[in-house]
Design a protein that fits this description.
- It comes from Jacana jacana.
- The structure is a single chain.
- By secondary structure, the chain is mainly α.
- 71% of the residues lie in helices and 0% in strands.
- It has 2 domains: 10-79, Histone, subunit A (Orthogonal Bundle); 83-139, no CATH class.
- The chain has 6 helices and no strands.
- The chain starts with 14 loop residues before the first helix and ends with a helix.
Length: 140
């Protein structure tokens, strides 16, 4: 867990996440606690290494935000080119999931009513409100 001191050495991956990945990857293998801790430290160091390299690449290209392309270039430059095809697959999956979430959160799509019908209903409501306002004005 990260501390508030801002020291990079204090940043680690949540152990619960690592434990879950280990169980999913090796369901029939017992892993000692110190081995789990070593895996956490290795993952943290790997992420730090890749993100630092991606940040350098980002800075050299005069960008302010690290993009997936910067991470892919970092993997290549650090000798992890064999991971790139899998990284690209995962990136595509993430984009697909994000797009589905955006579509699912669209209120219009969740209603299941065509946009034309919604527009007609809206105009009908405006007409009713206008009538109500006119009636109120006549009463005064």
């Amino acid at each position: 867990m990260a501390s508030s001191s801002g020291n990079d050495d204090d940043l680690t991956i949540p152990r619960a996440a690592i434990n879950k990945m280990i169980k999913e990857t090796l369901p029939n293998v017992r892993v000692a606690n110190d081995a789990r801790e070593l895996v956490v430290n290795c993952c943290t160091e790997f992420i730090h290494l890749i993100s630092s390299e991606a940040n350098e690449i980002c800075n050299k290209s005069e960008k302010k935000t690290i993009s997936p392309e910067h991470v892919i270039q970092a993997l290549e430059s650090l000798g992890f080119g064999s991971y790139i095809s899998e990284v690209k697959e995962v990136l595509q999956e993430c984009k697909t999931v994000a797009l589905k979430r955006r579509k699912a959160s669209s209120r219009l799509e969740n209603l299941g009513i065509p946009e034309e019908e919604l527009l007609r209903q809206q105009q009908e409501l405006f007409a009713k409100v206008s009538e109500a306002i006119l009636k109120l004005m006549r009463l005064e």
